[in-house]
Queue: 2 jobs
Job 1
Amino acid sequence: MSPDLLLLIGKATLDTLRMVAIAGFIGALIGLPIGIFLATSGKGELFPAPNVNRATGLIVNATRSTPFIILVVAIIPFTRLVTGTSIGTKAAIVPLTIATIPFFARLVEAAIRDVDKGLIEAARAMGATPMQIVFKVLLAEARPALTLALTMTIVSLIGYSAMVGAVGGGGLGDLGIRYGYQRFMPDVMLIVVIVLIVLVQLVQSAGDRLARRFDKRSRKT
Amino acid sequence: MTIPASTIARDDAAVAFDGVSKHFPASGESVAFTALNNVSLTVARGSITGIIGRSGAGKSTLIRLVNGLEKPSSGKVRVDGVDVGALDEGGLRNLRRSVGMIFQHFNVLSSRTVFGNVALPLEISGMDRRAIEARVRPLLDLVGLADKHGRYPAELSGGQKQRIGIARALATEPKLLLSDEATSALDPETTQSILELLKRINAELGLTVLLITHEMEVVKAVTSDVAVIDKGEIVERGHTFDVFTHPKHATTQALLSGLPGSKLPEAIARGLKPAAAPGDRVVVRLTFFGAAAERPLISQLIQSIGAEVNIIAGTIDEIGGKPYGSLVVAYGADPETVEKAERFFSENGLVTEVLGYVA
Ligand SMILES: Nc1ncnc2c1ncn2[C@@H]1O[C@H](COP(=O)(O)OP(=O)(O)OP(=O)(O)O)[C@@H](O)[C@H]1O
Ligand SMILES: [Mg+2]
């Protein structure tokens, strides 16, 4: 394989990492509070707002059920508004972020809902404010589950980022399609797939290890 | 906390329930339900007061009204004279910071160490690190967890977790401690040690304890006063000793019948006859309190009636801190022996109850 090709693969990998990192960071930052809100705003919960809760849930579901490739196309005007372009790595970050938000929010909601209700009761009995309950009880207790949720989100993002390649988004998916498929270079395709597998493996095992470190619920020897 | 004058009552009780009812409205599948019906009850300052009742009687609902986790549908709950229902959210939080609560399932945070769990209510009330440190250490000593301060709850036993719960409840130096079935998930021995701890805290810190349980053993071991709740109503209340020795309501009697020593051996119970035939023996339950419980009654009884006495069942125990004995004995049913025995009983102030006759 030529050094040129290796350089291309290296650059594509960096592009993918950049897309995943930025979309993951912004998506998680916005998805986290939405997830917390979804988990705590039902009737009789910490921040009761059942109607807003239902509306938010509806929007989240709608976004999640739109196939990603359609989402990419559908929000092109918005993407152009934000980044000034509709192709390339920068442009790809917008739909990736939009897809990440509801995905992560639902995982956060599940993680928070999983926290023992008795702990919320105990904190209320101590005179905690709803915000104190969120930060000192819910987020602290859900930390291992939240770590796994973030891991899962990043893994899916790696997959999505390969898909934006199909619409000129840059990165490993783009490379695989342009060289591996269109120019029929199976060795490039193979390397792209291997790099993607390695990335996913690394993220998953790092996430698992971190989650295990945070988890104090089981005895360790 | 500023308290509107109108909410302060003059009574001296730590907690006062005044005609309190609680209805849960129907929702979804479940029908409307009256969990508490016109409950009036006071908890004397410095006492350990027990509330006992069967599962579903409304005990948890009642105790949750005290720190405003639940609101009464009607009636008033006062804590130290303050009407809990009249407090806004901020007032409620202040109240809760002065009322400790411990739970059946401990409810300790798995993500925090022993130290961190006890520190939590202090962090919540905005205390600084150093002051927290100074407050938590002696509490861990008090509950016997000083050597475990850096451990996580998963590494501790149930009894130790409840000790965290108790230390945590005491952290803000409350005047009132609420305990909802704090020992129900523990074995009898651990239960005893937790109850001893509660007793010691009550005596040393002088704080009032309101304790909820479905176990008579718990009431007997630590409380000075007790109320019996059944289907949302208080059916009997008084000093623990009186309620135990003279239970009036059927629910109290049923709850008491589970206690060891209160039942006759099966073989005797089956052979009991309502009337005496010649040569039969009479079966009598003797109840004795206070000083009488410490005298050698049986040998004196045998001496004074000059006849053979069988002991069929008996317990000597302590209820609400007072010695108490219950003894079932049998002796000849002939008029002469009976008369001598009755004289002995009345001279010694024993309460007697003829249970029947055996051959
Ligand atoms: N939020 C609620 N909504 C509807 N019904 C309720 C609610 N909370 C309690 N109840 C009902 O009120 C009754 C009393 O409940 P409570 O929890 O006070 O009983 P308890 O005496 O503490 O029982 P246990 O010993 O089993 O804990 C029960 O029949 C219960 O189903
Ligand atoms: Mg209960």
Job 2
Amino acid sequence: MQFGLTQEQEMFRQMAADVAKTAIAPKAAEVDQTGEFPWHVVDAYRQQDIYSLTVPEEYGGAGVDLLTFCIVVEEIAKVDATAAIILAVQELGLLPILLGGSEEQKRKYLPGFGSGELIAAFGLTEPEAGSDVSSLKMKAVRKGDKYVLNGTKVFITNGGIADVYSIFAVTDSEAKHRGISAFIVEKDTPGFSIGKIEDKMGIRGSQTAELIFENCEVPVENLIGQEGDGFKLAMMTLDRTRPGVAAQAVGIAQGAFDYAVQYVQDRKQFGKPLAAFQGLQFMLADMATQIESARQLLYKAASLIEAEGKDGKISPYINRYAAMAKLHAAETAMKVTTDAVQILGGYGYIKDHPVERMMRDAKITQIYEGTSQIQKIVIARSYLD
Amino acid sequence: MKIAVCIKQIMDPEISPRDFKIDADAKNAVLGKNPLVISTFDENALEVALQYVEKNSGEITVFTYGVAKSEDALRKALAMKADNAVLLESTKEAGWDSYQTGKVLAEGLKKHGPFDLVFFGRQAGDSDAGIVGAVVAEELGLPLVSFVTTINQKDDKVFFDRVTDEGRERVEASPPLAVTVTNDEGNTPRIPKVKDIMMANRKQISKESVGELPASDFMEIISLDIPSSDVVCEFLDGNEPADKVNRLVEKLKESKVL
Ligand SMILES: Cc1cc2nc3c(=O)[nH]c(=O)nc-3n(C[C@H](O)[C@H](O)[C@H](O)COP(=O)(O)OP(=O)(O)OC[C@H]3O[C@@H](n4cnc5c(N)ncnc54)[C@H](O)[C@@H]3O)c2cc1C
């Protein structure tokens, strides 16, 4: 196992750090306050070709490996978790097409996702189907050369922002999870509309919306793969995107830690800098060790998925390591950001310092793309089944 | 137009002052875990050259004189879209003798040249000496235009906008010549794009050994330290604001500020 990054990966990290510093960090606090979608971040990603990262070269992208993508997400999350998820969700939305789509579908959509001209979203969760994906209710009924979609999706990141949605719906209600299929739905399709836009605790600039489908007709060409492939595609997608959320979590944690390290050297109490107190030194040591272990597990997971999961191959390790990386990183982010707030004391609780926002942002990493409890179920099953 | 840009790899000058340490015995700054970057004004110089080539035409070769690790700086320059890169590789960190550095660069430029325009940053971000550009111009027998912010071409005339003590001026000069660049809003270095980073990593960097140079025979650093500054806060008494102002003026005179 190789522990160092390549020169190219270091260059990507530096590029992401420069974009984060110049285009994202200056407005991160304002975006958090207003909760408005940061189009300037999308523009920066387009300008720097960042959306092209994971799109294969034959579809006009850069086709970098998953680890490189995670490094970029991590670097951005150090300054702003909202901006990080905007990038990670592009991957979430496009992967069902990349993994299961026809050549025609890939040619139609992937170049646009790569340039950032098209923004993607992923619609799986429903009011009654969160952790339990197999109980989806949304229906897709075939009618001639169309499928008619009826139902509601909730909590969809980029809802109302995206141009193209990967949507999961039931085509055969008898077949349980084998009756789920995936569809490409374009934003202007009649019968498709955006419902409630959520007001959230964290990642406040990321738009989370309800999607409403009322007799929404999509052409049969928009079915991804075969009828019944949906569940497998959703799981394969999540196996490859959970490292992205883990990278977001590691980045948030590192950002909060770095801030705390600076702070303890500046702030004086009892005639000494806070850094002189062993009680706080021990906290910093724990935080740093947790972050580094989360990062190493993430890098291992990303490398392993890259090596074993090429071309949609299924390997039992992918599932396990993706879940481990996300679980550990998310728990670390929550713990480290909470400790960072503690280290700043009252100042940590005030919006003048970014650790307040980081602590709220960290929470989501324990929830979306499978809660921490669900990751544990996945990990345990990978040993027991 | 055949263009050369000389860049230096230095310790990131934007690190927090807390991370800046000096080894008094070695008479050098301690790199420690601090990152290495392309010296700021050199990046501005590369940006000016890139903008010139994009508007007109030309081919850019970047040069650096340094140890193997300096390759990273060249790689970044390639990712910013320079065409070629040459590493004049030394086995030891270059010293602070700008004259020696200038001579090494001049030899490399002669070998790969001749160039129509040779760019430098106005001074390195670590030594702040600002000598190398002039030394190379002298060695190559080129005229030098200093403190340039932008270059424009109309027909076959090349115009250089430069910053002076009084303001700005525009000079017309005909290549071949050397140029030193200062920072300006219009030449903020670009951040490399994803695909350009990938292409940069597929390019060859030409490496030429210059061995270890002898110690400088006319320059020696006697001592190196970080200046310390003390802040003393004194409250002035007085009932009326006018009293306080008078006392303040007295104090300022006493300490020779006024
Ligand atoms: C901001 C945000 C963005 C999101 N973006 C998207 C998106 O883009 N696309 C999308 O499809 N979804 C998205 N989601 C949905 C998200 O993935 C779900 O919220 C998540 O999977 C949990 O589902 P739930 O909210 O229904 O919780 P529930 O499933 O109701 O879970 C409630 C609690 O029960 C626990 N629990 C559930 N089952 C078990 C079990 N078997 N054993 C032990 N504990 C269990 C859970 O861990 C949790 O603590 C987003 C959510 C949020 C908040």
